[in-house]
Amino acid sequence: MSRLAFTEAITENRAAFAENEFQHQIKVLRRQQGDLIKFLDGRGVQYEGRIVSIDKRKKWFQAEITKIRPAAPPAPLHLLVALPKGGKLDSIIQKAVELGVTGITPLLTERTEVRLKAVNKICARMEHWHKIAVAAIKQSDNPYLPIISEPREITRLQLEPAAENSRRIVFHPAAANISLNELNIDKNAIVTLALGPEGGFTESEIEQFKSLRFLPVGLGKRILRLETAVVSALTLIQYLRNSF
Ligand code: SAH
User: Most buried among 78, 140, 158, 186, using CB within 10 Å?
Assistant: First the structure.
């Protein structure tokens, strides 16, 4: 488990850490007042600080910031991924965050078998996904926490306006004749990727993507499981634009 901590509660020279971090840093790692810790805010800054107070009853602690290291913003890389059954999205989020995505939107597609109707269920899942993303940025020392949006249908996607350097790609085995290296993906490309459910996108969904200026692209001659396809696609994009 990572030794890095995470907090969004940062003022000019202090950072406060709530129960989760208290459990890990104080209970598990046995840090004490005066110890140095490293932490992230998820908005692009890596910090170092000294623990100045610990409240064991309220289960929180504070650190005084001693060093600030801002990181360059990552190239935009948004993942639209069909919401799989069970807990499979958890490991997809974990891997996607390690590979540097800047946003994730779970897609509700025609062949998606999950229906998240109750609002409270969506909130609980989103909270859970947020925690997984936070653990993944800590584990991979990635200073940028991606935004995870609520699950939505293709027709309800909110896309950035298309620009000259936008690359919108929908991975579809039937588009095997077009591959990623034909798309001229460089460092400045604003990339949005869509990957479908185990049953694949339907042809009408592919048409909807095309009308949103997505290009259907193949990912090799074998059909990959969704989790494998996500990792392969992200790895290739990061490689093509020299962003590893
Ligand atoms: N039976 C489905 C495959 C689904 S695999 C079909 O034939 O469409 C789940 C998702 O992974 C796909 O929707 C696609 O987005 C991606 N994928 C897997 N293998 C791929 C390949 N060889 N080329 C392009 N996309 C692929």
Answer: 78
